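A reminder before we start the practical. When you read a complex entry, don't treat the lines as separate problems. The point of joint prediction is that each chain is placed relative to the others, so the output describes one connected object in space. Small molecules and nucleic acid strands, if listed, are placed in the same frame. In the example below there are two entries. Take a minute to note the order of the lines before looking further.
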Amino acid sequence: MSIPGITGGVVSDFDAAGHTTQAAAVLLAGMTLAGVSEASGASAVVYLATSTIAVPNLPPSHPFNEANVKWTEVAQSLRDLRNELDAAVNQRAAVDASWSGPGADAFCAYANNTLLPAIDKLAACADEAAQTCGAIRDTLDLGLIIYLATVAAGIVLCIIANYYNSIPLVGAFIAAMLKWIIVDAWIFSVLYTIYDMLNTLLALQQEQASMEEAMRQLATVFSTDGSKFDAAALELMRREVESVMQDPSGWNKS
Amino acid sequence: MQAVRGGSGMEVSHNTRQLRAAARLLIDADVKTKVTNKVADLHIPATAWPLMAAFGTASTYGNLRETAEKAAGGLDTVVQALGRTVQGIASYYERMESQYGTDFDSADVGS
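Here is the predicted structure of the whole assembly.
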Protein backbone atom coordinates (compact mmCIF):
# COMPACT_ATOMS: atom_id res chain seq x y z
CA MET A 1 0.00 0.00 0.00
CA SER A 2 1.48 3.34 -1.01
CA ILE A 3 1.00 6.65 0.77
CA PRO A 4 0.48 9.39 -1.86
CA GLY A 5 3.43 11.78 -2.00
CA ILE A 6 5.48 9.70 0.43
CA THR A 7 5.73 6.17 -0.93
CA GLY A 8 5.13 4.61 -4.34
CA GLY A 9 7.34 3.80 -7.33
CA VAL A 10 10.87 3.12 -6.14
CA VAL A 11 10.00 4.22 -2.58
CA SER A 12 8.34 1.29 -0.82
CA ASP A 13 6.90 1.27 2.69
CA PHE A 14 10.15 -0.45 3.70
CA ASP A 15 12.12 2.41 2.13
CA ALA A 16 9.97 4.94 4.01
CA ALA A 17 10.85 3.12 7.23
CA GLY A 18 14.51 3.31 6.15
CA HIS A 19 14.07 7.05 5.61
CA THR A 20 12.81 7.39 9.19
CA THR A 21 15.67 5.23 10.48
CA GLN A 22 18.29 7.33 8.67
CA ALA A 23 16.69 10.54 9.96
CA ALA A 24 16.82 9.05 13.47
CA ALA A 25 20.49 8.10 13.00
CA VAL A 26 21.37 11.61 11.78
CA LEU A 27 19.49 13.06 14.76
CA LEU A 28 21.12 10.60 17.21
CA ALA A 29 24.59 11.49 15.92
CA GLY A 30 23.80 15.19 16.40
CA MET A 31 22.38 14.54 19.88
CA THR A 32 25.54 12.67 20.87
CA LEU A 33 27.61 15.67 19.83
CA ALA A 34 25.20 17.93 21.72
CA GLY A 35 25.68 15.76 24.82
CA VAL A 36 29.48 15.83 24.80
CA SER A 37 29.50 19.57 24.05
CA GLU A 38 28.04 20.29 27.49
CA ALA A 39 28.48 21.96 29.93
CA SER A 40 29.37 24.71 27.47
CA GLY A 41 25.74 25.58 26.70
CA ALA A 42 26.29 24.78 22.98
CA SER A 43 24.01 21.73 22.91
CA ALA A 44 20.92 23.79 21.98
CA VAL A 45 22.73 25.15 18.91
CA VAL A 46 23.83 21.63 17.91
CA TYR A 47 20.27 20.34 18.30
CA LEU A 48 18.87 23.20 16.23
CA ALA A 49 21.41 22.67 13.41
CA THR A 50 20.80 18.92 13.41
CA SER A 51 17.02 19.01 13.37
CA THR A 52 16.53 21.94 10.98
CA ILE A 53 19.48 21.60 8.57
CA ALA A 54 20.91 18.06 8.62
CA VAL A 55 17.82 15.85 9.04
CA PRO A 56 15.65 17.33 6.23
CA ASN A 57 18.54 17.62 3.76
CA LEU A 58 20.06 14.16 4.14
CA PRO A 59 17.43 11.70 2.81
CA PRO A 60 18.49 8.10 2.02
CA SER A 61 19.98 7.43 -1.40
CA HIS A 62 18.66 3.89 -1.96
CA PRO A 63 15.54 4.89 -3.96
CA PHE A 64 17.87 6.65 -6.41
CA ASN A 65 20.16 3.63 -6.51
CA GLU A 66 17.18 1.39 -7.31
CA ALA A 67 16.01 3.84 -9.99
CA ASN A 68 19.53 3.96 -11.45
CA VAL A 69 19.70 0.15 -11.66
CA LYS A 70 16.22 -0.20 -13.18
CA TRP A 71 16.67 2.58 -15.76
CA THR A 72 19.96 0.92 -16.77
CA GLU A 73 18.10 -2.40 -17.19
CA VAL A 74 15.42 -0.69 -19.29
CA ALA A 75 18.07 0.93 -21.52
CA GLN A 76 19.78 -2.45 -21.96
CA SER A 77 16.48 -4.20 -22.81
CA LEU A 78 15.83 -1.56 -25.48
CA ARG A 79 19.35 -1.89 -26.90
CA ASP A 80 18.99 -5.69 -27.00
CA LEU A 81 15.67 -5.36 -28.87
CA ARG A 82 17.19 -2.81 -31.24
CA ASN A 83 20.18 -5.05 -32.05
CA GLU A 84 17.99 -8.15 -32.55
CA LEU A 85 15.62 -6.22 -34.80
CA ASP A 86 18.49 -4.66 -36.74
CA ALA A 87 19.95 -8.15 -37.27
CA ALA A 88 16.58 -9.55 -38.39
CA VAL A 89 16.03 -6.72 -40.85
CA ASN A 90 19.43 -5.69 -42.19
CA GLN A 91 22.16 -8.26 -41.75
CA ARG A 92 23.10 -11.11 -44.09
CA ALA A 93 20.33 -13.67 -44.49
CA ALA A 94 17.90 -11.16 -42.95
CA VAL A 95 14.70 -9.77 -44.49
CA ASP A 96 16.48 -7.03 -46.46
CA ALA A 97 18.83 -9.59 -48.06
CA SER A 98 16.14 -12.23 -48.66
CA TRP A 99 13.17 -10.26 -49.95
CA SER A 100 12.47 -7.53 -52.47
CA GLY A 101 9.39 -5.75 -53.78
CA PRO A 102 7.24 -2.91 -52.40
CA GLY A 103 5.97 -4.88 -49.35
CA ALA A 104 9.47 -5.90 -48.24
CA ASP A 105 10.80 -2.41 -48.97
CA ALA A 106 8.00 -0.81 -46.92
CA PHE A 107 8.77 -3.11 -43.97
CA CYS A 108 12.52 -2.45 -44.11
CA ALA A 109 12.03 1.29 -44.56
CA TYR A 110 9.62 1.48 -41.61
CA ALA A 111 11.93 -0.59 -39.40
CA ASN A 112 15.07 1.37 -40.36
CA ASN A 113 13.69 4.89 -40.59
CA THR A 114 11.02 4.89 -37.89
CA LEU A 115 11.16 1.96 -35.49
CA LEU A 116 14.92 1.61 -34.86
CA PRO A 117 15.43 5.39 -34.35
CA ALA A 118 12.46 5.42 -31.94
CA ILE A 119 14.01 2.59 -29.90
CA ASP A 120 17.38 4.41 -29.97
CA LYS A 121 15.85 7.62 -28.64
CA LEU A 122 13.89 5.81 -25.94
CA ALA A 123 17.08 4.03 -24.83
CA ALA A 124 18.81 7.45 -24.72
CA CYS A 125 16.05 8.74 -22.41
CA ALA A 126 16.54 5.71 -20.13
CA ASP A 127 20.31 6.34 -20.08
CA GLU A 128 19.82 9.99 -19.11
CA ALA A 129 17.38 9.06 -16.33
CA ALA A 130 19.84 6.42 -15.04
CA GLN A 131 22.71 8.93 -15.01
CA THR A 132 20.63 11.55 -13.20
CA CYS A 133 19.52 9.08 -10.53
CA GLY A 134 23.10 7.81 -10.14
CA ALA A 135 24.44 11.36 -9.70
CA ILE A 136 21.79 12.16 -7.06
CA ARG A 137 22.57 8.89 -5.22
CA ASP A 138 26.30 9.74 -5.13
CA THR A 139 25.61 13.27 -3.88
CA LEU A 140 23.36 12.06 -1.05
CA ASP A 141 25.82 9.31 -0.04
CA LEU A 142 28.74 11.72 0.06
CA GLY A 143 26.71 14.29 2.04
CA LEU A 144 25.82 11.68 4.68
CA ILE A 145 29.39 10.40 4.96
CA ILE A 146 30.78 13.93 5.41
CA TYR A 147 28.08 14.75 7.99
CA LEU A 148 28.79 11.62 10.06
CA ALA A 149 32.56 12.16 9.80
CA THR A 150 32.29 15.76 11.03
CA VAL A 151 30.02 14.68 13.92
CA ALA A 152 32.55 11.97 14.89
CA ALA A 153 35.40 14.48 14.74
CA GLY A 154 33.38 16.96 16.83
CA ILE A 155 32.66 14.28 19.48
CA VAL A 156 36.32 13.29 19.74
CA LEU A 157 37.48 16.91 19.99
CA CYS A 158 34.87 17.70 22.67
CA ILE A 159 36.02 14.68 24.71
CA ILE A 160 39.63 15.88 24.39
CA ALA A 161 38.52 19.38 25.45
CA ASN A 162 37.16 17.87 28.68
CA TYR A 163 40.74 17.29 29.86
CA TYR A 164 41.10 21.06 30.28
CA ASN A 165 38.54 20.82 33.11
CA SER A 166 41.33 19.48 35.35
CA ILE A 167 43.13 22.83 35.24
CA PRO A 168 42.21 24.78 38.40
CA LEU A 169 40.11 27.96 38.14
CA VAL A 170 40.22 28.57 34.36
CA GLY A 171 39.99 24.96 33.16
CA ALA A 172 36.19 24.82 32.86
CA PHE A 173 36.17 28.15 31.02
CA ILE A 174 38.83 26.98 28.55
CA ALA A 175 36.98 23.69 27.95
CA ALA A 176 33.71 25.56 27.35
CA MET A 177 35.38 28.01 24.95
CA LEU A 178 37.03 25.16 23.04
CA LYS A 179 33.69 23.35 22.77
CA TRP A 180 32.04 26.47 21.36
CA ILE A 181 34.82 26.71 18.80
CA ILE A 182 34.38 23.01 17.94
CA VAL A 183 30.58 23.38 17.65
CA ASP A 184 30.92 26.53 15.53
CA ALA A 185 33.36 24.74 13.22
CA TRP A 186 31.00 21.77 13.04
CA ILE A 187 27.99 23.94 12.18
CA PHE A 188 30.09 25.66 9.50
CA SER A 189 31.07 22.26 8.07
CA VAL A 190 27.42 21.08 8.05
CA LEU A 191 26.32 24.26 6.29
CA TYR A 192 29.17 23.91 3.81
CA THR A 193 28.26 20.24 3.18
CA ILE A 194 24.65 21.18 2.42
CA TYR A 195 25.84 24.13 0.29
CA ASP A 196 28.19 21.79 -1.58
CA MET A 197 25.33 19.31 -2.13
CA LEU A 198 23.17 22.14 -3.45
CA ASN A 199 25.95 23.16 -5.84
CA THR A 200 26.26 19.57 -7.03
CA LEU A 201 22.51 19.37 -7.51
CA LEU A 202 22.60 22.68 -9.37
CA ALA A 203 25.22 21.11 -11.60
CA LEU A 204 22.57 18.48 -12.24
CA GLN A 205 20.82 21.15 -14.25
CA GLN A 206 23.14 19.84 -16.95
CA GLU A 207 21.63 16.38 -16.42
CA GLN A 208 18.22 18.03 -16.48
CA ALA A 209 19.10 19.69 -19.80
CA SER A 210 20.26 16.31 -21.11
CA MET A 211 16.97 14.71 -20.03
CA GLU A 212 15.02 17.49 -21.76
CA GLU A 213 17.12 17.07 -24.92
CA ALA A 214 16.56 13.29 -24.84
CA MET A 215 12.80 13.91 -24.54
CA ARG A 216 12.94 16.39 -27.46
CA GLN A 217 14.77 13.82 -29.58
CA LEU A 218 12.18 11.22 -28.60
CA ALA A 219 9.40 13.61 -29.66
CA THR A 220 10.95 13.96 -33.13
CA VAL A 221 10.52 10.24 -33.81
CA PHE A 222 7.29 9.85 -31.80
CA SER A 223 5.56 12.61 -33.67
CA THR A 224 3.71 13.17 -36.90
CA ASP A 225 4.73 16.82 -37.15
CA GLY A 226 8.27 16.43 -35.81
CA SER A 227 7.81 18.38 -32.59
CA LYS A 228 4.89 17.31 -30.36
CA PHE A 229 5.23 13.93 -28.70
CA ASP A 230 2.50 11.52 -29.71
CA ALA A 231 2.67 7.92 -28.49
CA ALA A 232 0.23 6.88 -31.24
CA ALA A 233 2.30 8.44 -34.04
CA LEU A 234 4.42 5.32 -34.59
CA GLU A 235 1.27 3.25 -34.97
CA LEU A 236 -0.19 5.82 -37.36
CA MET A 237 2.95 5.64 -39.50
CA ARG A 238 2.82 1.84 -39.41
CA ARG A 239 -0.78 1.84 -40.60
CA GLU A 240 0.21 4.07 -43.51
CA VAL A 241 2.57 1.38 -44.85
CA GLU A 242 0.49 -1.60 -43.71
CA SER A 243 -1.59 -1.93 -46.89
CA VAL A 244 1.61 -2.14 -48.95
CA MET A 245 3.17 -4.62 -46.52
CA GLN A 246 0.10 -6.84 -46.38
CA ASP A 247 0.02 -7.43 -50.13
CA PRO A 248 1.80 -10.79 -50.66
CA SER A 249 2.75 -9.82 -54.21
CA GLY A 250 5.01 -7.16 -52.66
CA TRP A 251 7.26 -9.86 -51.13
CA ASN A 252 9.46 -11.50 -53.75
CA LYS A 253 12.37 -13.76 -53.02
CA SER A 254 15.64 -12.03 -53.85
CA MET B 1 16.92 -22.08 -53.20
CA GLN B 2 17.85 -23.97 -50.03
CA ALA B 3 14.85 -25.50 -48.26
CA VAL B 4 14.86 -26.01 -44.51
CA ARG B 5 12.41 -27.22 -41.94
CA GLY B 6 10.67 -24.39 -40.18
CA GLY B 7 9.52 -24.20 -36.59
CA SER B 8 6.20 -25.86 -37.46
CA GLY B 9 8.02 -28.85 -38.95
CA MET B 10 6.87 -27.98 -42.46
CA GLU B 11 9.62 -27.63 -45.05
CA VAL B 12 9.96 -23.97 -46.02
CA SER B 13 12.49 -21.97 -48.02
CA HIS B 14 15.34 -20.19 -46.30
CA ASN B 15 13.70 -16.83 -47.05
CA THR B 16 10.39 -17.80 -45.49
CA ARG B 17 12.18 -19.08 -42.43
CA GLN B 18 13.94 -15.72 -42.06
CA LEU B 19 10.63 -13.92 -42.41
CA ARG B 20 9.06 -16.16 -39.81
CA ALA B 21 12.02 -15.54 -37.46
CA ALA B 22 11.58 -11.78 -37.86
CA ALA B 23 7.85 -12.09 -37.09
CA ARG B 24 8.56 -14.25 -34.03
CA LEU B 25 11.15 -11.74 -32.78
CA LEU B 26 8.64 -8.89 -33.04
CA ILE B 27 5.77 -10.82 -31.45
CA ASP B 28 7.94 -12.14 -28.59
CA ALA B 29 9.68 -8.79 -27.95
CA ASP B 30 7.45 -8.20 -24.89
CA VAL B 31 8.18 -4.49 -24.62
CA LYS B 32 5.36 -4.26 -22.08
CA THR B 33 7.09 -6.44 -19.47
CA LYS B 34 10.68 -5.48 -20.21
CA VAL B 35 10.17 -1.73 -20.56
CA THR B 36 6.69 -0.25 -20.04
CA ASN B 37 5.91 -1.91 -16.71
CA LYS B 38 9.39 -1.19 -15.34
CA VAL B 39 9.21 2.49 -16.33
CA ALA B 40 5.78 2.73 -14.68
CA ASP B 41 7.38 1.61 -11.40
CA LEU B 42 10.11 4.25 -11.51
CA HIS B 43 8.07 7.07 -10.02
CA ILE B 44 9.97 8.89 -7.22
CA PRO B 45 7.78 10.77 -4.68
CA ALA B 46 8.80 14.36 -3.93
CA THR B 47 9.60 13.55 -0.29
CA ALA B 48 12.53 11.42 -1.41
CA TRP B 49 14.36 14.47 -2.76
CA PRO B 50 13.40 17.70 -0.98
CA LEU B 51 16.45 19.58 -2.24
CA MET B 52 15.95 18.61 -5.88
CA ALA B 53 12.30 19.60 -5.99
CA ALA B 54 13.35 23.23 -5.57
CA PHE B 55 15.44 23.20 -8.76
CA GLY B 56 12.98 21.55 -11.12
CA THR B 57 14.97 18.33 -11.44
CA ALA B 58 12.17 16.36 -9.79
CA SER B 59 9.57 17.65 -12.22
CA THR B 60 11.81 17.10 -15.27
CA TYR B 61 12.44 13.55 -14.09
CA GLY B 62 8.69 13.04 -13.65
CA ASN B 63 8.01 14.33 -17.18
CA LEU B 64 10.73 12.11 -18.64
CA ARG B 65 9.38 9.03 -16.86
CA GLU B 66 5.81 9.68 -18.03
CA THR B 67 6.95 10.35 -21.61
CA ALA B 68 9.11 7.22 -21.63
CA GLU B 69 6.19 5.17 -20.29
CA LYS B 70 3.87 6.44 -23.03
CA ALA B 71 6.54 5.92 -25.70
CA ALA B 72 7.17 2.36 -24.51
CA GLY B 73 3.42 1.68 -24.61
CA GLY B 74 3.27 3.00 -28.20
CA LEU B 75 6.32 0.95 -29.13
CA ASP B 76 4.73 -2.20 -27.71
CA THR B 77 1.58 -1.67 -29.83
CA VAL B 78 3.61 -1.11 -32.99
CA VAL B 79 6.01 -4.02 -32.51
CA GLN B 80 3.13 -6.44 -31.87
CA ALA B 81 1.15 -5.21 -34.91
CA LEU B 82 4.21 -5.26 -37.14
CA GLY B 83 4.96 -8.81 -36.00
CA ARG B 84 1.42 -9.93 -36.88
CA THR B 85 1.67 -8.37 -40.36
CA VAL B 86 5.02 -10.03 -41.06
CA GLN B 87 3.68 -13.30 -39.65
CA GLY B 88 0.74 -13.01 -42.08
CA ILE B 89 3.14 -12.75 -45.03
CA ALA B 90 5.26 -15.65 -43.71
CA SER B 91 2.09 -17.78 -43.34
CA TYR B 92 1.08 -16.91 -46.90
CA TYR B 93 4.45 -18.07 -48.20
CA GLU B 94 4.27 -21.24 -46.10
CA ARG B 95 0.90 -22.06 -47.65
CA MET B 96 2.08 -21.29 -51.18
CA GLU B 97 5.30 -23.24 -50.73
CA SER B 98 3.36 -26.23 -49.37
CA GLN B 99 1.24 -26.17 -52.54
CA TYR B 100 3.81 -25.18 -55.17
CA GLY B 101 7.13 -26.11 -53.54
CA THR B 102 9.79 -24.07 -51.81
CA ASP B 103 10.76 -22.34 -55.06
CA PHE B 104 7.41 -20.54 -55.11
CA ASP B 105 7.90 -16.81 -55.53
CA SER B 106 5.14 -14.21 -55.76
CA ALA B 107 7.23 -12.49 -58.44
CA ASP B 108 6.50 -15.46 -60.72
CA VAL B 109 2.73 -15.43 -60.15
CA GLY B 110 0.90 -14.33 -63.26
CA SER B 111 4.05 -14.31 -65.39
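Discuss with your neighbour: The beta strands of chain B are 3-5, 11-13. What might explain this?
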